[in-house]
C-alpha cells in the first residue's frame, strides 16, 4: 500500500500545487508528502515537479504520469471507500462556510434533522458573505449563491435554483403607487445590498424579451445584510430585490407583493463547493448528499 500512498500524495500535490495544501487535504505532514514525492521520483527516475519557493508545477514527465495514473488510482480509492463505508458510521467534525442569508433560511432549519440522522457528526457552521479559502481556513466545504461561480480548481455541485424576487409591502405600494415598468422604479425608494468586499452597490437583474436587463436604482438605502433588506421592506421603507428563498413565505402570506414576476431573473443557484472528490471523507459526503436530497 506504500505505492498507493505515494500516488495519492502525488495526485493531491498536482491538483493543489502545494505540498502543504496536499498534506492538509490528506491528513499528513508536509514533510511526509514531500518524502512520498521524492521516493516516487526516485523509483521512476524522473522529476515530477519543478519546485520554487512559492509553488510547485508539474514537469512534462509529471503531467504525462498524472494522466496515466490518476484514474486507476481514483478507481482504487473509490473501491476502498465503498468497502469501508459499508462498515463505518460517519463521525467527527465538519467545518462549513455558508452565505449568511442562505444559511439562515435553508441550511440551519435542516441541521437538527441531519444531527438526528448522523448523531456522531459535529457541525461547525460559519455564516459569512466573504469568499472563504477552503484550504487555508480549513473548511471541509463552502455553500455559495450566485448566477455563476468563478473558475475554480474545486468541485461544485448545484443544490437548488432560485429567482431574484423584486417586492414591496402592500402599504408601501398603496402610499407611493405600483411601478408600471422596471425603469419606473427610478422614482421609488429602492433598498439595495452593498457588497462587503468591494463597497459597490449590487445592481438589480431582470429578463425582458429574452435579454438581460440591469437596473441601478438612483434613490436608495443600502445595507450589507439581506435580512435587514427584508425587514425594511416589511416595514414599508421601499422596494427590494433579493433571493426568492428569503421572501417566498412573506409573498405567499401577503406581507410582500412581488413586482415584475414575469421579468424575474431565474438563472441564480446555490452551490456546495469542496476541494476534491477523491479526498472526500464519509462525513462530508453524507452531509453533501443530505443537503442535495432535502433542499428544494
From TrEMBL:
Keyword Transcription regulation appears in the UniProt entry: yes
Gene3D superfamilies linked: 3.40.190.290, Winged helix-like DNA-binding domain superfamily/Winged helix DNA-binding domain (1.10.10.10)
Residue stretches making up the HTH lysR-type domain: 1-59
GO molecular function terms listed in the Swiss-Prot or TrEMBL record: DNA-binding transcription factor activity; sequence-specific DNA binding
A Gene Ontology biological process term: DNA-templated transcription
Keyword Transcription attributed: yes
Keywords carried by this UniProt record: DNA-binding, Transcription, Transcription regulation
The family this protein is said to belong to: Belongs to the LysR transcriptional regulatory family.
Name under which the protein is recorded: LysR family transcriptional regulator
Organism for this UniProt entry: Marinibactrum halimedae
